[in-house]
């Protein structure tokens, strides 16, 4: 196969072919993550990959999921996607060990074949497997924690493997300083704190005025939707015109629906699943609530603020306090306190002028987290990794 430069390459080596086509002066960044569904991690990967591809970089996404539906977030056609076909699902302990070992083997084979200049890995278990798969290959691997490592229980085996392997990473990225400080000095010898970016909404036609309080997230205990249902039940008699819409999907759906019905909220709480397009929930929302027990950042809170929505959030670790200045651009209430959340909702839903003031301030403050600003920080990570490998001929700009 001739690529126009006088050399022939094996048919399967598409990345090497592309390098020869555009020259060797642009970096090849490989990103590893579990899948390409809806979620905050998938969103930030989408922003990074698309912006780097638009510069002419070589960008490869490697996921553990099997071939299937297209990614939830649209990617630039230049972004190469490889699915290894081993999704992370619940298994017996022995089955989980076998599956993880298989993932490491397939990932190592992909890393050896693709030989990226920089590898970025997202989420704890994937980070551990990426570091295990890259051992001895001479690759620069940057791992990124996307949750609260102090409160997210990954289990004793993964905690041990994380403590053992993270010191071998080139660097560590977290979204908050609190998350970074959780790790030992050996595990954060080279580190960056980079918040999630938010795509500020383009001029559109918001269909608001329907008295909709909105929450968004995976239906799991971390997101605290059970606490939110209790708080909303406390205020619904005072605000019969308001409805609560919880967007998202997850394993706790049946339990949450049962709790909704037990609280007598069936006619005023909707759980429609995942939105057909990213972020369109902001078009119909009149207020936003984050009820998480803990967060790595809380990108949906920032998306709501960027859309000019009034927001109320538990002051959980970590993320909300990085975005919300209480009483200025949103409301923060004591973490996990249902009564405090109900009192805050009573204020927010009952005061239109307060909603207007908080929403206007939220929109202004969210501009601090534009993709352009956040990309500058990720570019620093790439430059450092390239410099460590002596790749001065590669231009990360």
Q: What would your notes on this structure say?
A:
The protein has 13 helices and 13 strands. It is α/β, with parallel strands linked by helices. The protein folds into 2 domains: 14-196 and 371-388, Glycogen Phosphorylase B (Rossmann fold); 212-369, Glycogen Phosphorylase B (Rossmann fold), CATH 3.40.50. The chain has a 7-stranded parallel sheet with strand order 3-2-1-4-5-6-7, with helices on both faces. Strands 10-9-8-11-12-13 form a 6-stranded parallel sheet, sandwiched between helices. β1, α2 and β2 (58-63) form a beta-alpha-beta unit.
Provide a brief overview of the structure:
The chain has 397 residues and is of the alpha/beta class.
Present the secondary structure layout.
Layout: H1 14-22, E1 28-33, H2 40-54, E2 58-63, E3 80-83, H3 93-114, E4 118-122, H4 124-134, E5 141-144, H5 156-165, E6 171-174, H6 177-182, E7 191-193, E8 212-216, H7 225-235, E9 243-247, H8 253-262, E10 269-273, E11 287-290, H9 299-306, E12 311-314, H10 320-323, E13 331-333, H11 338-350, H12 352-365, H13 371-388
Parallel strand pairs: 1-2, 1-4, 2-3, 4-5, 5-6, 6-7, 8-9, 8-11, 9-10, 11-12, 12-13
Helix segment tally: 13
Order of helices and strands: HEHEEHEHEHEHEEHEHEEHEHEHHH
Overall pLDDT metric: 89
Q: Globular, elongated, flat, extended or rod-shaped: what is the shape?
A: globular
Q: What structural category do the secondary elements indicate?
A: alpha/beta
Record the strand order, biggest sheet: 3-2-1-4-5-6-7
How much beta, percentage-wise? Answer: 5-15%
Biggest sheet, open or closed, and with what strands and sense?
Answer: 7 strands, parallel
Helix content: 25-40%
Q: What is the CATH topology of the largest domain?
A: Rossmann fold
Q: Evaluate the radius of gyration.
A: 22 Å
Name of the top-level CATH class of the largest domain: Alpha Beta
How far apart the termini lie comes to: 31 Å
CATH architecture type of the largest domain: 3-Layer(aba) Sandwich
Kindly give the count of domains. Answer: 2
């Amino acid at each position: 196969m001739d690529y126009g430069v006088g050399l022939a390459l094996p048919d399967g080596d598409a990345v090497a072919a592309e390098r020869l086509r555009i020259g060797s002066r642009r970096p090849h960044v490989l990103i590893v993550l579990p899948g390409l569904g809806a979620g905050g991690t998938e969103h930030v990967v989408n922003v990074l990959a698309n912006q780097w591809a638009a510069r002419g970089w070589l960008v490869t996404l490697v996921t553990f999921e099997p071939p299937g539906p297209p990614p939830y977030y649209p990617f630039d056609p230049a972004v190469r996607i490889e699915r290894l076909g081993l999704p992370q699902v619940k298994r017996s302990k022995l089955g989980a060990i076998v599956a993880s070992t298989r993932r490491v083997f397939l990932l190592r084979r992909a890393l050896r074949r693709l030989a990226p200049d920089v590898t970025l890995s997202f989420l704890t278990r994937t980070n551990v497997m990426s570091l295990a798969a890259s051992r001895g290959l001479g690759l620069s691997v940057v791992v990124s924690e996307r949750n609260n490592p102090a409160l997210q229980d990954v289990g004793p085996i993964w905690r041990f493997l994380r403590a053992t392997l993270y010191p071998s990473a080139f660097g560590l990225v977290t979204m908050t300083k609190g998350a970074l400080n959780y790790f030992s000095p050996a595990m954060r010898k080279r580190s960056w704190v980079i918040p999630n970016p938010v795509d500020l909404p383009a001029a559109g036609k918001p269909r608001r005025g329907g008295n909709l309080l909105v929450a968004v997230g995976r239906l799991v205990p971390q997101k605290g939707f059970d606490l939110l249902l209790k708080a909303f039940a406390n205020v619904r008699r005072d605000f019969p015109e308001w409805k609560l819409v919880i967007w998202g999907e997850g394993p706790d759906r049946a339990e949450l629906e049962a709790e909704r019905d037990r609280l007598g909220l069936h006619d005023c709480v909707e759980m429609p699943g995942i939105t057909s397009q990213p972020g369109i929930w902001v078009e119909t929302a009149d207020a936003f609530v984050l009820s998480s027990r803990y967060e790595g950042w809380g990108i949906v809170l920032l998306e709501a603020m960027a859309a000019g929505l009034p927001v109320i959030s538990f002051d959980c670790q970590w993320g909300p306090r990085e975005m919300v200045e209480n009483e200025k651009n949103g409301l923060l209430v004591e973490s996990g306190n249902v009564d405090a959340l109900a009192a805050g909702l009573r204020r927010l839903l009952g005061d239109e002028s307060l909603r207007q003031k908080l929403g206007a301030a939220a929109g202004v403050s969210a501009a601090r987290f534009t993709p352009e600003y956040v990309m500058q920080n990720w570019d620093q990570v790439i430059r450092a990794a390239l410099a460590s490998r002596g790749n001065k001929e590669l231009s990360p700009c």
